[in-house]
Design brief:
Elements lengths: L9 E6 L3 H12 L4 E5 L12 E3 H9 L3 H4 L8 E3 L2 E3 L10 E3 L2 H14 L3 E4 L1 E8 L4 E7 L2 E12 L6 H5 L6 E2 L4 E8 L6 E6 L2 E7 L5 E7 L13 H12 L7 E9 L2 E3 L4 E2 L2 E3 L5 E2 L6 H21 L5 H30 L5 H11 L2 H12 L23 E4 L2 E4 L9 E5 L4 H7 L7 E5 L13 E4 L5 E4 L3 H12 L12
Parallel strand pairs: 1-2, 1-10, 2-7, 10-19, 23-24
Antiparallel strand pairs: 3-6, 4-5, 8-9, 9-10, 11-17, 12-15, 12-16, 13-14, 14-15, 17-20, 18-19, 21-22, 23-25, 25-26
Helix pairs in contact: 1-4, 1-7, 7-8, 11-12
This protein binds flavin-adenine dinucleotide.
Length: about 500
């Protein structure tokens, strides 16, 4: 019980202004929740980190109207599975992978979230956490001064060494790294570009980037991961590179050094009362195939609208609990594919037979399509529930639509973060069924398919704010049931307001 505890300062405290915290802050603001982001760093990181955005993430940025500002990022070329070439073509207007430095993604999301009214407090480190029946108290240190921020919910988006996870009592089962890749950005060296080259002694990767800086990654087969509290030395990297390729890099100028291993852990639950986890705080994975950042962004997009609706009083606990129920299995599946890739990538000669069989499988169109959809996030679906259309739970695909004389599509109306009923049937009973939710929660879009464009695989569909299908081609009464499940009772919305 809180007794005489002061009123909360804000609806939600997000700990961490990394990409996941920033995405979540924007999503919460779209849903009308007041949000304060606490970030220990005084300025955004400029560290070279994740650089790949996959198709599902690009679809989400498209749905939120953020692609224009992102500009026209370069394509990332073909993908890979465990270092074996994988064509990532899939059903998205942004099929493939896209090269966007993490700092740029963060800057984009920070501008978006603050533009929507999120408050970001930099130089604020969370050091303590207490939850009571109706609020969470965050103890924070800023410029050596202790202060308290109270909120109704607190979300840990504070990365792989999450303080929130530790203080919030979340178990984090899994294993530490047994193998590692050393990585360095090096100036003043000339080595051939190498894409997952397997040598007798180990694995070597090199790519020359803009400005003449070469990123090298190297792993010696059979070498265990070194327990580290600091980055590797340049001498470690050059010695491993020499061992694997025979080339000398010692004359180069190291700009950035880093090691990452095949550690794999996942929080056993993503919610403990009023405290939740998202992104690397919820799951720790080897950043292979560029899935780590993308997975976290999708967590944020799943959680934001649900928590905002819960705070608005229209959604019961089931909606908030569905965050764990939907995202934990997706995370577990990605951790599984990353573990499989780590075995194929970092295994020595003993995995060659497995790689040979895998190579044959990857040549089969169906196997390629399956893996490409998994890596790019396009097949990340939530359980539809019994008796529902098979498309329920899957992400809506991009289709051109027309309303009267206006051209639109299935993505653009999602920019405001509201639900969307796409009705191509013209059946007045459907619109009548949805009318009690058309009070700002759900937009009804009666549309046609422009001639010469591919029609959707449905005649009518309800799309959640996160772009996943909630109902497809059912009866008006089943539509009303789906609307009630995801958007609360008819016409009783109290939107949370404030910042
Ligand atoms: C060196 C490095 C290289 C990587 N390379 C790749 C890659 O090539 N491909 C890939 O897909 N992924 C890569 N990753 C992983 C990718 O960067 C992460 O998946 C992604 O950043 C996760 O985003 P996040 O917002 O969950 O956490 P983070 O980006 O870690 O952000 C967490 C934020 O929380 C803040 N914070 C932490 N504790 C506190 C506290 N107590 N109080 C206040 N603020 C706090 C931190 O300062 C940080 O800003 C790499 C990560 C690292 C560290």
């Amino acid at each position: 019980m809180t007794g005489t505890a002061p009123a909360p300062d804000t609806h939600v405290v997000v700990v961490g202004a990394g990409p996941v915290g920033l995405m979540l802050a924007g999503e919460l603001r779209l849903g009308g929740a007041a949000v304060t982001v606490l970030e220990q760093r005084h300025a955004p990181t400029t560290e070279s980190r994740a650089s790949t955005l996959h198709a599902r993430t690009m679809d989400i940025l498209h749905q939120r109207g953020l692609l224009v500002e992102l500009g026209d990022p370069p394509r990332g070329g073909p993908g890979h599975f465990g270092g074996m070439r994988l064509d990532l073509t899939g059903p998205s207007p942004h099929s493939g992978q896209w090269k966007v430095p993490q700092a740029r993604t963060e800057a984009l999301l920070a501008r978006w979230a603050t533009g929507l009214g999120a408050r970001i407090l930099r130089g604020h480190r969370l050091v303590g956490l207490t939850q009571t029946e109706d609020q969470v108290r965050a103890d924070v240190v800023a410029d050596g001064v202790h202060r308290t921020v109270r909120a109704r919910y607190l979300i840990g988006c504070d990365g792989e060494r999450s303080t929130v996870r530790e203080l919030g009592g979340f178990a984090f089962p899994g294993h530490d790294a047994s193998k590692e890749l050393l990585r360095a950005d090096v100036a003043d060296v000339t080595v051939p570009d190498r894409r997952f080259e397997r040598h007798p002694g180990g694995l070597a990767i090199a790519s020359r980037g803009p400005g003449g800086v070469t990123r090298v990654m190297v792993h010696r087969y059979g070498t265990p991961a070194t327990p580290r509290t600091t980055d590797p030395t340049f001498e470690e990297v050059t010695a491993a590179w020499q061992h694997v390729t025979g080339e000398d890099l010692t004359h180069g100028r190291p700009l950035w050094l880093n090691a990452f291993g095949n550690a794999c852990r996942q929080a056993d639950r993503y919610r403990n009362g009023r405290i939740l986890l998202a992104g690397d705080a919820a799951h720790h994975q080897m950043p292979v195939g560029g899935q780590a950042l993308n997975l976290g962004l999708h967590d944020a997009v799943n959680l934001g609208w649900k928590l905002a609706a819960h705070l608005g009083g229209t959604a019961g606990a089931h909606l908030l609990d569905s965050y764990h129920d939907e995202r934990h299995p997706v995370g577990a599946r990605i951790l599984g594919n990353i573990t499989a890739q780590a075995l194929l990538l970092l295994g020595g000669p003993e995995v060659e037979p497995l790689r040979a069989v895998f190579g044959e499988l990857l040549a089969l169109p169906e196997a390629r399509t399956h893996l490409a959809a998994m890596i790019s996030g396009l097949d990340h679906a939530y359980p539809p529930g019994s008796g529902h259309h098979l498309l329920v739970g899957t992400p809506v695909r991009h289709h051109h639509l027309r309303t009267g004389t206006e051209d639109t599509d299935t993505f653009a109306p999602l920019e405001t973060g509201r639900g969307l009923l796409v009705d191509l049937t013209g059946d007045p009973a459907l619109a009548a069924s949805a009318a009690p939710w058309a009070d700002g929660r759900v937009r009804v879009l009666r549309a046609t398919v422009p001639p010469g464009t591919a029609p959707p695989a449905f005649a009518a569909a309800l799309v959640r704010p996160d772009g996943h299908l909630a109902w497809v081609d059912g009866t008006p009464s089943s539509l009303a049931a789906a609307l009630q499940r995801w958007f609360g009772p008819p016409q009783r919305r109290v939107r949370p307001t404030g910042r």
